[in-house]
Amino acid sequence: MLSVRDLVVHYDTPLGRVKAADRISFSLRAGERLGFAGESGSGKSTMALAILRMIKPPGRIEAGEVRLDGQNLMTLNDEDMRRVRLAGIALIPQGSMNALNPVMRVKEQIIDALRDHGVRLSGRERDVRVRELLQSVGLRADVADMFPHELSGGMKQRACIAIGISLRPRVIIADEPTSALDVVVQKQVMETLARVQENLGASVILVGHDMGLMAQFVDRLGIMYAGKLIEVSPVREIFTRPLHPYTRMLIASLPSLEEKGTFRGIPGLLPLLRDLPPGCAFHPRCPHTVDRCRTEVPTLREVRPDGSAACHLV
Amino acid sequence: MRYLRRNPSLVVGIVLLSALALFVIVGHFTVDTSKSRPLSAPAVRAPSAEHPFGTDRQGRDLFATMVAGTPLTLRIGFIAGFLGVGIGAILGFVSAYYRGTVDAIIRGIVDIGLTVPGLLVLIIIAVSLRRGLTVDQMAIIVASLAWLNPARTIRAQVLSLRERGYVEVARLSGMSGPEIIFKELMPNVLPYLAATLVNSVSSAILASVGLEVLGLGPIDSPTLGMTLYWVNFNAALINGWWWWWAAPIVIILVVFLGLFFLTVGLDEIANPRLRRAI
Amino acid sequence: MTALLEARHVTRIFGGGFFDRSSTLALDEFSLALDGDRPSIIAVVGESGSGKTTLGRLLLGLTTPTRGQVFYNGRDLQKMSRAGWRAFRRDVQVIFQDPYGVYNPFYRIDHVLTTPVAKFGLATSRAGARTLIDDVLRAVGLRPEETLGRFPHQLSGGQRQRVMVARALLLRPRVIVADEPVSMVDASLRATILASLRTMNRDLGISIVYITHDLATAYQISDTIVVLYRGSVAEAGDVELVVKRPQHPYTQLLLSSIPLASPERTWMTESATAPTAPREAIETGCKFAGRCPSVASACREMPPPRFQTDRGRAVACYLYRGAPVLTEGDPWPRRSR
Amino acid sequence: MRADYLARRFAVFVLIVWLAATLNFFLPRLSGQDPVRATLLQQAQLGGYVQSGLEAMVKEYEHRFGLDKPLWVQYVTYLGDVSRFNFNYSISNYPRTVNEIIAEAIPWTVGLLGTTTLLSFAIGTLLGALLAWPGAPRWMRLLMPPLWALHAIPFFLLGLILMYVFAFRVQLLPMFGGYSAGAFPALTLAFAGDVLAHAILPALSIVLVATGGWALGMRGMMVTTMGEDYVTFAEAKGLMRLTIFLRYCVRNAILPQTTALALALGNILSGAVLVEVIFGFPGVGTILFHAIRENDHFLIQGIVFTVIVALGVATLILDVLYPLLDPRISYRGA
Questions:
Q1: Is residue A295 classed exposed, middle or buried when 0-12, 13-18 and 19+ CB atoms within 10 A define those classes?
Q2: Per-residue b/e over C204-230, b at no fewer than 16 CB within 10 Å?
Q3: Cross-chain residue pair C188–A39, CB shorter than 8 Å
Q4: Over 70: is that where the pLDDT of C204 sits?
């Protein structure tokens, strides 16, 4: 369905070159839910935008291939790439962003997407289509004529999902779709996303930092640290037998509702992307560091069936 | 100094204004400014070695007039500008920080005051006080409306800063209201204050020159505006005495361009949109 | 025994001025008491718009109640003298949510530490002040030489938030109000900051009001918990009771909505609850009636009183009509003796 | 909510009108003696060219104001007159009332000011938008520096320069007045052409300066708007560049631009008065200039009041139109 090979994205800033995403590779199977979890500055959002070729200067996609059904998106001209967006790969924006145009009604923001992708519909057909889309995400039909500021956070996100699926895309990238939403609303938005994905048979890439959300929603989970993909495994195995030390410590630092006092933080500080430590970026904070970790950058390799990690000791 | 290279408009502004200052200082040494009074030179002479800027119909040596007049006009601008920003900043700070009815009143006056065309109100004032205006009186008149715009900009600036967390942290660390204004808010507002100051000096000069062109300025002083008034009064343009109005125009141009680029440069410092840190 | 810090029947309404007719009821008849001699950590949990931040600001004296009073050592904040306020400021400190907004970009971060020391005269000499500051920084896991002398934008969000904790520690307060202290900090650093809050409470006897939307962190560090819903208390009591055996339908809804970071997949199976009705005006009766699966006719008429269902827990819900009703005077939550 | 918003904006307008009237009444009295009497005396000493009507005028004013009445009575009668737009007689051209003179001048000023402001606003906004848009043609960049420089100088300064270059040196355009001396105002094409020729230079000196201002403002707003989340999401929706440019960027950036227009009206008018004076354009400005020279108090007060009220109306119209542009405004009040 979608395969990404050695994707590299750099940002040239006055303080030096920042390697935001460094040789990311993975493949997404049809109908699969693939998650990418990582803390701030781990490059997960950069990767999501890079797949849609929406990296703006001073950022630049240095290298790498993104193939959708075999077609390399990097070689497309701007016009063809524009057509792939939303029709092939749709983006669900962050929950905390005001992603809807404040001065346009919801209906118009759905219709302009259809029109610019060459979908010619008569007035009546258009209204029917809009109503169907809104109902498929659990929104009442009269939301079509409302302005974004008249909607709650959850309703705005569901409207964005409606826009996202309006052209039946094959891949949906959701970049922290429920950030800044209350936990009850978050559950409704994620259930909507799951239901919509099943109807379309599309696959979903969920980018975020909430490990609990990842545990309950995705099938396979990738962990990102300092711009690199350091582990990819089925989600059940990540929580039962994590491979990479960082993954293990990250899970240990999550507050559980079962028993008290079991969580403790990871010592040290998140690395600065503009001057990364040599070798494995996690070695200053890793309890099992050996010399090799300080000099040689570990590569992501298959360690067990369908489970790979980037660590010398695994 | 390295910073200046990255901020071209600031440099252009400074260069223009220092050139002007140089002209005035050098002028004071090379010409007897008393010749800016009428009948001190043969009338209507084109620029010549003896009268580098030529003379006007009332027998003023234009070079002397410019050398004497420019500092006067600048004086009006600076007095009105500083007064305007002084009053405006205080009102802006007070109304933004202490809010409540004070804020509502000040905001009301400012909003209405800004919709009213300043020049017309100044005209009414000037007309009523026609008895022999001096340069300083002129500055006061212009200052009477010059505080409106600074009050609005400073108030908006302080309002946005006031919501920041560090104001509340300061209050919880035992700092009093005035202390917070000076120690926490003032440093962040200074760049804006500077840009607003230059801007209000510029609009003060515009207002004073405007009044003078209409004949409402200090009649006997050789300010740039009054020179333009006599230009218009004697229809110098039609009579072809181009040098009579060329000198004031060039100087006024330099003044406004200099102040404008200075404002843009200071604006750049105040909110460096360019400085992007990852 | 007067409480150290107490809110009694506090109501706060925003807006409703001459021009702006839409007024929002942030807090409705809310009472809470901090017991001075048995310092504990009270968590105030609620969704956005539940009034939890307003409560925090009321306890800190940053906003004044529309009705009701806030007492510090039995004295009403509104009527306190200047000297009274200085003592109050010293004893009740804060940790704010946004590590990016609390530092004045103009100063180095030392300013945040040196100001309280100077204002409250915590140290007699410059050297004394320096050691005091170094100690509190080490107490929160920061190396002074790596932190002091630098500008805010040179430190990460996690470091900045730890400096704020150090600032609160500096004054040796008796109460710290922490408003979402870790919600903008990464998971790996969250645990360290919460742990330092825990040690401050246990070792230094500082009571902490932990305001958050995250029930999991609340469960981990607090002793008692208050669940807020649109300005009123739904349920309050010992954290073990409330989290392990929630009784109020809203608490149950909150707990069932949290995606657990565990291999078992329980989250997605249950059906979504009734879609949230748009925020109608606050009708009479229980505010949760609009979304409550087990709503009854009684719920719509009168707001439910507080039923004492366990030794250490009370619930404002008619489902527990049988239980004894907490009287007017009792501030929440009475600790199990 | 809409009615509440409109009511408040109208209240502000009434306040402006009242303020204008009060300013007009009290400011002249600041100088102690009644300006009317002072001017009449001056007129008499000078033996002004209106010799004949002088006595009749004095009696008329004495009766009109009843100078012995307390100040507030005079104030109330004054307010009464003002509300009926009656500014009694103009001193410098006695038989004609102030209203007549103003009525003659208003079409000229409205014509000049209206067209130049709308023109410069439209061109400036369009230019500013294009300058910020990466897709815009390269040569647009070259326009920036001149626009910047022009924006700095006042209208009348540019006016003088244009007058010298085009009217005096090249004699392409008429230098002075609203129409040729001999022409008789009539609704003929020729006369219209003549008026247009006279209006070009004043209009140009306003448009060239104002356009720069609007372009700068719009460019700044466009740069901020292009960084907004909804523009990024619009790109992710695969919308065409033109759609994003018009319906997402310009549509949002135009909001603060219109507010700026409402705020700038005052300054534009002040500038325009000077331009009219320089070019002798028969608008309100020139009449004001002569009224000042003649010390004609009532004409000055009449003009100032009318202009402030006219601006108040313009601002009110803009305030009423604004909610149509920005749905959020009518929803929760200004």
A1: exposed
A2: eebbbbbbbbbbbbbbbbbbbbbbbbb
A3: yes
A4: yes
pLDDT of residue C300: 83
* DSSP for C219-242, written as a single string: HHH-SEEEEEETTEEEEEEEHHHH
D329 CB neighbour count, 10 Å cutoff: 17
C-contacting chains (≥3 CB pairs under 8 Å)? A, B, D
What Rg value do the Cα atoms of chain B yield, rounded? 22
Please list every residue in chain A whose beta carbon sits closer than 8 Å to the beta carbon of residue B6: none
pLDDT at residue D251 greater than cutoff 70: yes
Provide the 3-class DSSP secondary structure of residue D130: helix
Which of B198, B194, B229, B195 has the alpha carbon at shortest distance from B215? B229
User: Cβ contacts (< 8 Å) between C105 and chain B: which residues?
Assistant: 188
ipTM comes to 0.86
- Would you call D30 and B128 a contact, using CB atoms and an 8 Å cutoff? yes
Instruction: Give the full edge-to-edge strand order of the sheet including C41-45.
Output: C92-95, C175-179, C207-212, C41-45, C224-229, C232-238, C313-315, C307-310
| Cross-chain CB nearest to C104 (options B172, B174, B184) | B184
- pLDDT tens-place string over residues C100-114: 888 998 899 999 999
- Contact list, A263 vs chain C (CB under 8 Å): 191, 220
Question: Which residue of chain B comes nearest to D303, CA vs CA?
Answer: B120
C93–B contact, CB cutoff 8 A? yes
Q: For chain B, give the percent of residues with pLDDT over 70.
A: 94
Q: Which two tokens stand for residue C321?
A: 């009509």
Nearest to D243 among A52, A91, A112 (CB): A112
The structural domains of chain A, with segments of one domain joined by +, span 2-218
Does the pTM surpass 0.90? The reply is no
Residues D87 and D286: their CA atoms lie apart, in Å, by 18
pLDDT over 80 (residue D41) = no
Listed residue (A170, B209, B232) closest to D280, CA to CA = B232
Question: What's the CATH code, domain A2-218?
Answer: 3.40.50.300
> Is C272 an 8 Å CB contact of chain A?
yes
State pLDDT tens for residues A168-197: 999 999 999 988 888 888 998 999 999 999
Which residue type occupies B77?
G
What confidence score (pLDDT) does residue B274 get? Answer: 39
